[in-house]
Design brief:
Layout (H helix, E strand, L loop, with lengths): L8 H10 L2 E9 L5 E7 L3 H5 L3 E4 L13 E6 L5 E7 L2 E11 L10 H14 L4 E15 L5 E5 L15 H13 L4 E6 L5 E6 L2 E2 H21 L2 E4 L13 E9 L2 E2 L12 H12 L1 H8 L5 H4 L9 E2 L1 E2 L7 E2 L10 E3 L8 H18 L16 H6 L3 E2 L4 H9 L2 H27 L4 H7 L4
Parallel strand pairs: 1-6, 16-17
Antiparallel strand pairs: 1-2, 3-4, 4-6, 5-6, 7-8, 7-10, 7-11, 7-12, 7-13, 9-10, 13-14, 13-18, 15-19, 17-18
Helix pairs in contact: 3-9, 3-12, 4-5, 5-9, 6-9, 7-9, 7-11, 9-12, 11-12
């Protein structure tokens, strides 16, 4: 996790002088997960510290109508961070902000505010924290002379390859060093299965900090890649015929006594709480897929043959199901959701899986039995016998599942829920109207 500090306003003023900070990036995230920022000169520091920075919310996807557009940015000073790179005119600091209405109330359409709300519900249910350990994957492509990404990969390496095959190694190492300078505790960095594909894992954090870290991570990866003439993309399936990029989410739930998923005497050393939380994840899987896999392209990754999950099932011993229970126990007992990808809005994705799990606890949902063999080798009758259903085939199917799930509506709040569905239906309609090269190659000469 990135190091957090309980900075006071006076601490920030002192750091600005000592570190020659000249610009402030005030960062927040829109409903679709796009990182936004308002950059202001350091002369605006006092206005920032006193919650007086205003912006036009009507220009941000999924926020507000023009007639209610004035919004305020309230900085979370624990997210204050100076970027390791600098300009000729001084250094740049960032702080992540929550969006507030002119009335002084948190804006319910802000994904970060929404996650804070869901975490309050979790605490009222008797838990202290929900930890997330993300495993984001990305591709590095070469850029053309105009700085645009090509479809030429930077290498032909594969899983855990070393140089010279892994030509992205130097870039990846600088990403790691930059993240560490920014307070991240990087646990592993390696070449992934597909050519040009990489993974960097950083230490788990509580849900809100984990979502902040994912957004910061994506910014750093893209910034450093450009220094090497490479374009980093978290698009789930940029090329056909090779593995896509996911972002497995390792999750654990705590109370004052520790990890509530662990029970020394339970089956697989898992507690009844773990099984009910897992039951909620299984029950709502089709619905939160629309949030954890939000692009038309996400469903090109969720197909058989490329190590991504296709079926709603769980296991403690194999990697083909949707949810895996890693071997570690004690304080490291966790559930791993393998379907999510890094195009997801992390604040909404984490809120959705947490609410699904809490629903499992509230209703005492018992998950189906674990599936400890390769699901891809089962026929349809065997899958039905084991209560295994398919994940949605495409974004439209996922949106239909989401639209009828009251638990997911609770997870997102009414405003975000409606904005998200509307935006994603527009995206799918635009996709459906396009004619692809595959269609022309397949049909032009036949018909």
């Amino acid at each position: 996790m990135a190091t957090k500090h309980d900075y006071s306003k006076d601490d920030i003023r002192r750091i600005v002088k000592e570190q020659d900070v000249k610009f402030l990036r005030l960062m927040f995230t829109d409903v679709l997960g796009t990182l936004k920022n308002v950059e202001v000169p350091i002369s605006q520091l006092d206005d920032l510290l006193n919650d007086k920075i205003m912006f036009d919310g009507s220009s941000i996807e999924g926020f507000v109508r023009i007639e209610e557009s004035d919004m305020y940015l309230h900085p979370d000073l624990t997210t204050w961070m100076i970027f390791p790179w600098s300009t000729e005119r001084g250094r740049i600091a960032r702080v992540i902000c929550e969006v507030y209405k002119p009335t002084g109330e948190p804006f319910e359409g802000d994904p970060r505010n929404n996650l804070i709300r869901v975490l309050k519900d979790m605490k009222e249910a008797g838990f202290t924290s929900f930890n997330i350990g993300p495993e984001p994957e990305f591709f590095l492509f070469k850029m053309d002379e105009n700085g645009k990404p090509t479809i030429n990969l930077n290498d032909q390496g594969s899983y855990f390859d070393m140089a010279p095959l892994d030509l992205g190694g130097n870039c990846r190492r600088e990403i790691v060093l930059t993240l560490e300078e920014m307070g991240f505790d990087v646990e592993a960095a390696h070449h992934e299965v597909a050519p040009g594909q990489h993974e960097i894992d950083f230490q788990y954090a509580d849900a809100l900090n984990a979502a902040d870290n994912i957004q910061t991570f994506k910014l750093v990866v893209k910034t450093i890649a450009r220094k090497y003439g490479l374009y980093a993309t978290f698009m789930p399936k940029p090329l056909s015929g090779i593995n896509g990029s996911g972002m497995h989410l390792n999750m654990s739930l705590f109370n004052d006594d520790g990890d509530v998923f662990y029970d020394e005497n339970g089956e697989l050393k898992l507690s009844e709480t773990a099984y009910h939380f897992l039951g909620g994840l299984i029950r709502h899987a089709k619905s939160y897929t629309a949030i954890c896999n939000p692009l038309v392209n996400s469903y090109k990754r969720l197909v058989p043959g490329y190590e991504a999950p296709v079926y709603v099932a769980w296991s403690g011993s194999n990697r083909s199901p949707l949810i895996r229970v890693p071997n570690a126990r004690g304080l490291a007992t966790r559930l791993e959701l393998r379907s999510a990808d890094a195009s997801a809005n992390p604040y909404l994705a984490i809120a959705s899986v947490l609410e699904a799990g809490l629903d499992g606890l509230k209703d005492g949902i018992v998950p189906p039995k674990s599936v400890d063999r390769n699901i891809y080798r089962m026929d349809e009758d065997e899958r039905e016998e084991n209560e295994i259903v398919n994940l949605p085939d495409d974004l439209l199917d996922a949106l239909e599942e989401l639209s009828s799930d009251e638990t997911m509506k609770k997870a997102l709040g009414t405003k975000i829920f409606n904005s998200y569905l509307a935006a994603k239906h527009l995206e799918y309609d635009a996709y459906r109207a396009q004619v692809s090269d595959w269609e022309r190659n397949q049909y032009m000469e036949k018909y």
